[in-house]
Fold each of these.
Amino acid sequence: MNAAPYLPRLDRLRRLMLATVLLCGVAASSMAAPEAAISPQRARSLYLLHCSGCHQPDGSGSPRFGVPTMRGMLGKFQQSSAGRAFLVQAPGARNAHITDAELAALTNWALLAFSPATLPAGFQPYTTEQVSRWRANPPLDVAGARAAIVSRFGN
Ligand code: HEC
């Protein structure tokens, strides 16, 4: 038996398989789970994995080394839409290797874990769509944007 005549077919099969794998990848990324499908446990794990090295497991940061505390603070950023946007635009959040849905779920989890008492009445959890929009349009001057937001914090 000579296998040669089957080679072109095998080649076509291989290309078909590759195309299928690529298509599945595209479908999976466009159907990525929305933030609501990510459990608080998963959000906490993402925080521990991607953020706690600098922000500490309890969110207290290292103010001496320029990592601000999240405790009793994150909720205040919910007073304005610029403040809400800022929490997902801070460099460590924006550049983390996690999806927009994961960052939304992580931020919603962190707000409740680290700053529940400062959440304004009527607080709306972050949606994936908001995170996508804000994450893609960060302020050029991060420190300046933060200073402007914090100066308008009410009690
Ligand atoms: C390498 C250290 C590091 C890592 C990792 C990191 N951050 Fe940060 N983060 C900082 C520093 C430093 C600041 C202060 C602002 C700045 O210089 O970027 C900050 C600021 C922030 C702020 C703004 C808080 C405020 O009061 O201004 C948020 C929100 C934030 N980070 C979220 C995250 C999230 C969410 C993650 C994980 C996905 C993360 N960070 C990972 C170092 C880090």
Note: The chain has a mean pLDDT of 89.
Amino acid sequence: MSRTIIGLAAAAATAALVFTLGCGSGQDDSEASAPTTAAIWAGEEMPSQLSQTGLFADLSGLGPADGVIGYEVAFPLWSDEAEKHRHVHVPDGAKIEVDDDGRFVMPDGTWFAKSFGYREEGTLRKVETRVMRKADDTWTYVTYRWNEDGTEAELTEGQDVELDFCVPNSEKNYVIPGRIACLQCHAGSPVSGFHPWQLDEKLLTRLESEGHLATPAAEIPNRVVQGESAEEVAAIGYLASNCAHCHNPESSNYEGDQLDLRHHLAKEELVAKESVRLKRDDITTLVVPGNPGHSVLMRLFDAELGDREQSKMPPIGNLTIDPRGRAILTAWINKLEG
Ligand code: HEC
Ligand code: HEC
């Protein structure tokens, strides 16, 4: 059985802005320019430089401007060892709604920034800062490519941009995703990580005290990742963060398949359930309690990228297998009783 994921070929075909340099060779061609500070950008088009968004008071150090909050998610998406910094701006007086699943629905005027970089001898080498803004009930997705000095980042043209350094432990260059790639992951649920179950108590309390929550934090449904053990909470949270942006019924990626890995559903969907897609040898059950080696879930998690017999999960977003994620999923399956 060979299947491909709809949309991926289209994304590759539009990758026009690709430099054909070898992995890790060549020169960076971006130019440095003086950083400026401004209020939150109000123009219709996204600004051409990250400094102009007004999200950062100290651009080089990623220090937030007034009204911008730095936050972390409890269960981050693995992206091949990249270090990430997340920021949010909610306009004064605007309220965040909560949908029936307990996901935040952000008001117009919301901005998110997610900066990617690699730590080299203690210093963060910033690579790109992805930015989302909601206006007229529509999200815009753009990304800014940092200059060599880490003093300014320039808006990309919306196509994939292949950079001239290798993703750690891989033989492929880092690719700044184009807009089609953003949408492949973000279309089902436009905001992927900024949800109550991902955020700590301190941040929720702050949003509430600043008058930004339409529903009191304590009344938000599916507020916490539930599990029978610490291993289970870690695994369910991991799946929800690393897989549920495709594996949920609203995602355009999922061809009407049934597997829904949002945190309040993941366990029931997986444990002792038969695979719809993969039936090979004697391995047909998604999660076999106590037996990771016989679970389709681990088979796909460990698959090679490009394997046509079985699609690697996740199919996009990283090139290497997450060793920590592997340990988390294995520990959980081992602990489950049959
Ligand atoms: C491989 C899937 C994937 C791709 C491709 C992707 N994202 Fe995301 N993005 C996620 C997930 C999952 C999260 C939440 C988890 C986290 O932040 O670790 C996220 C979080 C974000 C956030 C923080 C706000 C939020 O939704 O929680 C921003 C901003 C963002 N992405 C922008 C972009 C932009 C812009 C692009 C394209 C240039 C892009 N992303 C491409 C999966 C993806
Ligand atoms: C970019 C979207 C995307 C992401 C992210 C993703 N998947 Fe998938 N997944 C798919 C698609 C599409 C299919 C069906 C395609 C196929 O059979 O090749 C699938 C199929 C599966 C199946 C087979 C279901 C069955 O009934 O046989 C499993 C199990 C699975 N994914 C697990 C995961 C896990 C675990 C993660 C996170 C570590 C993940 N997926 C992340 C898109 C995604």
Note: Confidence is low (pLDDT under 50) at residues 1-22, 24-38.
